[in-house]
Amino acid sequence: MSMQHVAAALERVETVLRRRPAMGLHDDAPATARWESGTRIVASHANGTQMATDMPCELGGTGDKVTPGWLFRAGLASCAATSIAMHAAAAGIELSALEVRASSKSDTRALLGLHEVDGAPVHPAPCDVQLAIRIAAPGIAPGRLRTLVTQACGRSPIPSAVQTALPVDLHIDVGTT
Fold first, then answer.
1. Cα distance between residue 68 and residue 111, in whole Å
2. Structural domain boundaries in the chain
3. What is the fold of 67-112+120-166?
4. Which of 59, 89, 111, 117 is 20 to 30 A from 25, comparing alpha carbons?
5. Residue 10 in 3-state DSSP?
6. Distance between CA atoms of 105 and 89, rounded to whole angstroms?
């Protein structure tokens, strides 16, 4: 799909949403994760796409699949990259390179319910999250590309959810065996 095609699609959507803003609010496609065995989980999309996860051997898994934490970082990086590409297309910028690397640091003690020496709980969320972005576009000033990246990441759903620490509304249905 060409960047011109993306720009045209964005223009159409923007025209519709300016006339009918309520159309912008929609339910996102749910992800359903089902336990298979051990620490093996299969997440599914309504369109049939599936992704298996597992934990490393040290935590009882097989280590042959990506972890849920990696999927989180992959979603973060992919969402930011998509937003940057869309913003570049809308601005008429032809990218020659775009790479987003999401990394974080986590403390496994939280997964096990362990505490700090002083008794404080160890937080299960990553201790920090970074996005490292490499972008290039012939003839475009570095400052303009930095501004584009900053604006695009500020409008990107997953980075924004992480930035604002969106609360999770937990619903529990206890079934019978």
1. 13
2. 30-66, 67-112+120-166
3. GMP Synthetase; Chain A, domain 3 (3.30.300)
4. 89
5. helix
6. 33
Rounded distance between C-alpha atoms, residue 44 and residue 34, angstroms: 8
The per-residue pLDDT for range 56-84, each reduced to its tens digit, is: 999 999 999 999 999 999 999 999 999 99
CA atoms of 106 and 86, how far apart (whole Å): 31
* Angle formed at CA 151 by CA 18 and CA 98, multiple of 5 degrees: 115
Residues 96-130: tens digit of each pLDDT: 999 999 999 999 999 999 999 999 999 999 999 99
Q: Letter for the amino acid at 85?
A: A
Distance CA 72, CA 49 (A): 17
SS3 state of residue 70: helix
